[in-house]
Amino acid sequence: MPRSARLQHFWERVHASYWFVPSVMTIASAVLAMAALHVDRVLQEEWALRNDWLYQGTGEGARWLLSTVAGSMVTVAGVSFSITILVLSLASSQFGPRLLRSFLRDTGNELVLGTFISTFLYCILVLQAVRGSESEPFVPHVAITIAITLAVVSLGVLIYFIHHVAEMIQVENVIVAASREADGTIEELFPRRIGTGGPAETVPIDGGWEVPAAETGYVESLDGGRLMELGGTHDLMLELVARPGRFVRVGDPLLLVHGGVRSRALTHELQRCLFVGRARTPLHDIGAAVSQLVEIGVRALSSATNDPFTAIVCVDYLSAVLVKLARAPEVSAYRYDSHGKLRIVASPVDMNDVIAGALDSVRRYARSYPEVILRLLGAIESVSDAATSDALRARLRTVAESLRTEADSIVGAGDRAEVQDRADEVLG
To answer: What is the largest CA-CA distance in the chain?
Structure first.
């Protein structure tokens, strides 16, 4: 559908924020409080007292109970938020600031914070309705019973939060999450979801007219369905100049348009089809997805971290992603509409650059680590076996030759000989 990409982009932004789930839960708690109080007003107090599973205390006891729960929730929410900020700080320094997006997208943390805040708000709203020794006393037995239930649930959520934080900060889980995200991007490899791929056609040489960028930033994603729709409506052929992941400045060309009549309204509609943001995202950008794994590996090999074991795990999962990418069928840049008319000429990323570049980036930092070099050579061998093009095999061979040459700088003679023998084996 034409609006699906826009909705998907909006959901990505919302999902990467820390306010959405707690806000929804807070609103839900307010609605629940009003509904529970309404039930208590409709039902007679005698009915509530006949049901032992409902709160049976007095108004003063209800006030004390609700005040205690509300105060506890504020304290626990503050502590959990502080722990989350600490985890984000550690993740930024250990894994890289670009990996913070994955932590912010973690729904578990959002549910935890939302549970504490919503329980606090619920108790406050019910508390103001309690009347004890006044002329018209009102003890909302149902609402207070729900408050007790929410307090018990919050205790369980606190236990879950402690366990969840301990798990999410483990480097293996971070690497696996980045690997799965890259796998998902490969499944939706740009521009596969835009129209139908077809054979190459000659692009008009008139140059067309440009659609400039209205803001500065990275092209995060695009609405291919809407581009197809506009192309059919105005009989356009669109050349995509700025693909997802490309950095653009205000005025830089996003599209070259062939055909149609240039107008401010049409230019604005075409600009709205490309979403420009502050950073690259893996949604349609396979380079950004792979670079997350590369960044973890490179940081592990830095002199400040000096953690080759993490780098080895990272190379293993990186090799799995690159093997899948090497086996992925080539996606045509020429995209046709349902009537067989060429509407979009995309500019797909060169997969050879992504694959070879990822391995080469890790190679530059692995010179002092024979165990990492051996793992890299194994990854090169696996990707080369999966490659379907001679060009990619040649690029991988170049990376292996660089590793073979750099093996001369390894201090230990035994390590140096092992790396050289493995490199010779990979080079065949």
So the answer is: 94
Choose among 175, 127, 196: nearest CA to 317: 175
CA dist 336 and 133 (Å) reads: 76
Domain ranges of the chain: 4-169
C-alpha distances (whole Å) from 113 to each of 85, 119, 122, 158, 282 are 12, 10, 14, 10, 26
Whether residue 179 contacts residue 321, with contact meaning beta carbons closer than 8 Å, is answered with yes
CB 96 within 8 A of CB 295: yes
**Structure tokens given for 248:** 């653009």
Contact criterion met (CB below 8 Å) for 76 and 154: yes
Alpha-carbon gap, residue 425 to 428, rounded angstroms: 5
How many beta carbons lie within 10 A of that of residue 20, not counting itself?
16
Q: Where does residue 207 fall: left (phi above 0), alpha (psi -120 to 50 degrees), or beta otherwise?
A: left
By CB atoms closer than 10 A (0-12, 13-18, 19+), residue 8 is: middle
Rounded Cα distance between 346 and 97, Å, is 30
What's the mean pLDDT in 123-142? Answer: 83
CB of 403 within 8 A of CB of 373?
yes
Q: Are 346 and 196 in contact (CB under 8 A)?
A: no
Cα(first)–Cα(last) distance of the chain, in Å? 50
Nearby residues of 15 by Cβ (< 8 Å), 6 or more positions away:
105
DSSP state for residue 138 in the 8-state scheme: B
pLDDT in tens, 251-270: 999 999 998 889 999 999 99
Helices 308-327 and 171-187, axial angle in degrees (round to 10): 10
Q: Helix, strand or coil for residue 17?
A: coil
For residues 69-96, b (16+ Cβ closer than 10 Å) or e, as one string?
bbebbeebbeebbeebeebbeebeebbb
Q: What is d(CA 415, CA 306) in angstroms, rounded to the nearest whole number?
A: 18
Encode pLDDT of 87-131 as tens digits. 888 888 888 887 777 777 788 889 999 999 999 999 999 999 888
Q: Which two tokens stand for residue 367?
A: 């010179």
Number of H helices, E strands in the chain: 16, 9
- Please name which of 269, 243, 246, 259 lies closest in space to residue 343, comparing C-alpha atoms: 259
